[in-house]
Amino acid sequence: MSLVNLAHVCSHMQNASKARLGLTSVPVSKLHVKLMLGLQREGFISSVTLGSSSPPKPFLLQSTHDPEKLEIMAKKLEAEPWLSYPVETPTGKKEPLGPEIVHTVNVPENPARRRLWLGMKYWNNEPVLKHMKLISKPTRRIWLTSEDLAKITRTRESSYVKGLTHPGECMFLTTDRGILEARDCVERKIGGMALCRVW
Amino acid sequence: MSVCRPARCLFLRTTSTTLPKPTPPNRNFSTSTPRTARRRRPHYPSIKASDLKILNEAASVQFPTYNPTESSLAAKKYTPAQLAAIKAAETVIDPRDLYTQGQDRSDPWLLPYESDLRNMDPVKDHAPKKSIEDIKGRKEFRRTNRVERDEAIARVTTENMAKFYPDGVPTGEKTSEQHQLWEEAIVASMTQAALDPRTTYWSKDPKVVEALADPEHSALLPDLPRIENRMAKMTRRLSTEEEEDPRQKRLLLYMNWDKQQLKGVRVKTLVVHGVTNQTRMGKIRSMYYLTIAGNGDGLLGVGEGKSVEPEEGRKQSVMAAIRNMRPVPRYENRTTFGDLEKKVGATVVRLYSRPPGFGLRVQHLIFELARAAGLQDLSARTPRSRNKMNVIKATWEALCNQKLPDEISRARGKKLVDVRRVYYGGSVH
C-alpha cells in the first residue's frame, strides 16, 4: 500500500479538475480502485471505469435503446415493476423487457497496462472535487480511533488531524472493512488509517 | 504717625486751631486749552433766495402735489385710514429734501419686491398681531362647567359645519357617498370643537373667549400658504433635505433605491493614502480611498476612489462601495459556512466559522468588514502579507464566494443535512 502513489493520484486529481478535464486516468491498484469507488459513492466523481491506456467510450456515445422503446419500457415498468427482474426459465435466465445492451470495455491482459478512468464532475462552472490532500504521509502514517473520528467529523482537531471544517469536506480511511468515509466509520464505530481528505 | 490720622500738618497753610474749610477746586487737570462751545447751526440752511426758488421749482416738478382727480382716484383705491396715512407722510416729508437727498435704495436690506404695502402678503410680510391691550374691559376667564362646555361645543360644531357646507346643509335623500361625507364632516367638526379653547374656557366678555381661538392673538405665526403650481411642486424642497448630489442621484437610479434605503447602509473608509503619478511635467499627487459599505444584514461592498481632490475621491469610493454591494451568505445569520481561504497578491486570508457567542476575534480590517456584513462569530488569520487593501479585497471575495451546502449537495447528488438545525428542531434561526 504505497502512499506515494496515492499522493500522486491526489495531485493528479487536483490538476485535472483545475484543467477542467472531463475524463482522467490514474494507475490501477486495489487501494486506488476502492478509494475511487468511495469518491464516486460520495459524489465527487461521476464514473470509475477500468480500461486501457486509451479512454473508454463516453457514456453518451455508447449504444442505447431508442427513446421510443425506452418510453414503452418505462410505461411497462410503471404498470408492472416486477418486470425489471429476470425470470428463471428452463433454458436459463430471461429478461422480460428484452436483452440488456452491455457495453464492453477493452481491458488489457497485462495489469501494468491497465488504467482507471475517472469521470470528473463540475457544477456551476466549479469543479466538485477541488482539493484532495493526503493525511497520512508515506513517512508518517496516522491511525485514528472511532472517538478521534467522532471529534474530527464534528470539526474538532484530534490526534494531530485537523477537523473537517470546510463545507462538505470528506475524509477517507482504510479500515478492516475496506475504505470508508470518516462519517461511516463513526457510525459503525471503527477506526483505521487516515488516507486523504477531499473537499 | 498713624495711617488713620490724616497728615494734616502737611496741608496747613497757617497755624490755626480751626479746621480748614473746604475750598472749591481751582486746579486745572490738563494743560490743554478748553474747547470752545460748539457753534450753533442755523435752523434753516442759508440759501440764497434765487437758489431756493430754483430748488422749489425742481422739487415741485419732480414731486408734484396731487391734483383733485388723482386724489379721487386714490380715494377709490385706498381706505380712508390709508389715505390719511399717506397724506400725513406727504406732509412730513419735504419734497425739497426728497429732491436733494432722496435716492433709490441700493443697500442690501432694501425690499426685494415692489409693493404699495396695501395688502398683507402671507409669504413676505409678518402677519398682523394683536396684543392684550386690544381687548377692552376685564380679561378674566375660567374653565367651563359641563353645561357651558356642551353648549359651547354645540355652537362651535355648528360653526365648523358651516365651513364644510357654506351653501347650507343639503336637504332631501342623500346618496351613500354624500352620507359618508356628511358623517365625516360631523366627526371632524365635533373633534375640532372639542379641541377648541372656546369650549374649554368661559368668560363674561365673549371677546375674551374669542381671542383665545383668534390666530392674531396666537404667539405662533400662521403656516405659509402652499403654492399650488406644477413648477413649485417640482422644485419644492424641505428644509431638512440636504442638497442633492448628482452622483448620489445616479447611484439611486442604478440601485433602484430611494433615499431611505441609502440611510441604512453603513459606510466606512478604511484605507487612505496619497499616490503620485509621475508625468514628464512633474508629479501629480492624488488621494486614494478604499471604502466598505454594508447594510449589517448580509450585504457587503468594497469600493475604491482616487482623485486630486480629497473629498471627490472619498465620494467616488463611497459610491463605488455601495454600488458593489454583494450578498454575503451567512450561516444562521451569524457566521460563515465553514472555513474560507482566499489569496489576493501575497495576502492570504483565512476565515474560520465559529460557534454562537464567539464574537468577532479578528483583526481590525476584517472586523469592520464582518460588522458591515452582519457577521457575529468569526475568527481569522492573515498568515502572510497584511497589506491593507489586499486584506480587505481578499476577505470580501472570500465572504461573497462561499460554497453553500445546498449547492454542494446538488453538485454531489447527495443529501446534506444541517445537523444543528435538526438537533435543535429549527429553533436556532
From TrEMBL, chain A:
**GO BP:** translation
Database matches in Pfam families: Ribosomal_S8
Where does the source fall among the domains of life? Eukaryota
| Single GO MF annotation | structural constituent of ribosome
Chain segments annotated as transmembrane:
none
Sorted alphabetically, the keyword list is:
Ribonucleoprotein, Ribosomal protein
Gene Ontology cellular-component terms listed = ribonucleoprotein complex; ribosome
Family stated for the protein in its record:
Belongs to the universal ribosomal protein uS8 family.
The protein's matches in PANTHER family, at most eight in alphabetical order, are given as: 40S RIBOSOMAL PROTEIN S15A
Protein name stated in the entry: 40S ribosomal protein S8
Q: What species is this protein from?
A: Pleomassaria siparia CBS 279.74
TrEMBL record, chain B:
UniProt key word Ribonucleoprotein:
yes
Query: One GO cellular component from the entry?
Result: mitochondrial small ribosomal subunit
Instruction: Check the record and name the Pfam families matching this protein.
Output: Ribosomal_S5, Ribosomal_S5_C
Origin organism is Pleomassaria siparia CBS 279.74
GO BP annotation list: translation
User: Which family does the similarity line name?
Assistant: Belongs to the universal ribosomal protein uS5 family.
List, for all copies, the residue spans of the domain called S5 DRBM.
265-328
Protein name (Swiss-Prot/TrEMBL): Small ribosomal subunit protein uS5m
Keyword Metal-binding listed? The answer is no
Q: Which InterPro entries match?
A: Ribosomal_Su5_D2-typ_SF (IPR020568), Ribosomal_uS5 (IPR000851), Ribosomal_uS5_C (IPR005324), Ribosomal_uS5_N (IPR013810), Ribsml_uS5_D2-typ_fold_subgr (IPR014721)
Functionally, this protein is described as follows:
Component of the mitochondrial ribosome (mitoribosome), a dedicated translation machinery responsible for the synthesis of mitochondrial genome-encoded proteins, including at least some of the essential transmembrane subunits of the mitochondrial respiratory chain. The mitoribosomes are attached to the mitochondrial inner membrane and translation products are cotranslationally integrated into the membrane.
Q: Where in the cell is it found?
A: Mitochondrion
Q: Which UniProt keywords apply?
A: Mitochondrion, Ribonucleoprotein, Ribosomal protein
Q: Where is this region: Disordered?
A: 16-42
Q: Which GO terms describe its molecular function?
A: RNA binding; structural constituent of ribosome
